[in-house]
Amino acid sequence: MRKSWKVISVLLVVAFVSMMLAACSNDASGSGVSVGIVLPTKDEPRWVQDEQRFKDALSDSDYTTEILFSQGSSAKEKENVETLLNKGIEVLIIAPHDGAAAGSAVEAAKKEGVTVIAYDRLITETDAVDYYVTFDSIAVGAAQGQFLINNSEGSNVPLYLYAGASSDNNAFLFFEGAWSVLQPKIADGTFVIANSSEAEALQDKAELTRDEMSRILGQVTTNWDPNEAKNKAQTHLTAVGGELKGDVAILAPNDGTARAIADVFATDSEVTSYVVTGQDAEKASVQYIIDGKQSMTVFKDVRTLVKDAMGMAIDVLDGNTPATTGAYDNGSIEVKAKQTDVIVVEQTNVKSELIDSGYYEADEFTGL
After folding, report:
1. Does 353 map to a domain?
2. Are 236 and 318 contained in the same domain?
3. Closest residue by Cα to residue 137 from 167, 171, 168, 166
4. Residue 166 three-state SS
5. 146-189 pLDDT per residue, tens
6. What H or E segment, with its residue span, contains residue 327?
7. What is the pTM of this model?
8. Domain containing residue 183
9. Could you tell me which of 13, 51, 56, 233 has the fewest CB atoms within 10 Å of its CB?
10. Residue 203, in any domain of the structure
């Protein structure tokens, strides 16, 4: 009798362990997560704001999402994608840290039958991308360049060029857009390039190849890092004479770098005035614009971008084909894209574009 009870006890234990293993396996392979989202870093306000907007976008839906941050590491990014694949996602939305390095991560997703949506930054050199949701990045750069033209007077205005990270395809598109409008004004003597021998050597060329832009970016990249932007600006101002100071124009790629660069130029007694561009309408930069310390920002209403990305994801989950408005060559295929418009914000329209639209509250700023 005891032997029978022992056998039964052993069988019960085996059955219990089997059930626990099965449960663990189910947790690992599918937790009901419909959409996996991978964002590049928590260190920039833009991406933290996106996290909440993505959560809000699915709040009234039966679909679920999980959001992970890569913290500026392509290895962590790939690990995040693998984590989400193990949770059974059907759609992956990813803003890559490095457009080319992200290829292996999304290729793993495609092998699992997951639809891949590149978000804000294009994933390059792979055919494992289904869609791209983006602002018109060339239009962003063109708007920055045109603002410098519209707000500079006379000739031989010193022009300081700065760019984003060369690992980010958008940095090339922003620069391409800016160069397209600035180059004619460099060629005719309105501007004189102050901080890039590579750009100076190419100043008569209207359209630059990728390699030519790479050479310029190699000299003026900020890597999207305000500290690096600050150090470069200090180095550049130390290296030039008074003839490249006075009233200056500064192409800064985004708001974080714009504030850092503006702070440096503001402390140089030989710089009498500066016009500096930005991008993203970060709260701190909106205050800088109100205070006259930053000239403009390109407002990319991320609410619309998130809405477009989640709309695409839901279309896929519902078995529908997402609507697109264009396509981008990623070096391997033409990726179908949904483009979102951009808006130039300066002192005169901060209230109408950012407060009245509900993007920010008036009490978040002083001197509005």
Report:
1. yes
2. no
3. 171
4. coil
5. 999 999 999 999 999 999 999 898 999 999 999 999 999 999 99
6. strand 326-329
7. 0.75
8. 137-300+345-364
9. 13
10. yes
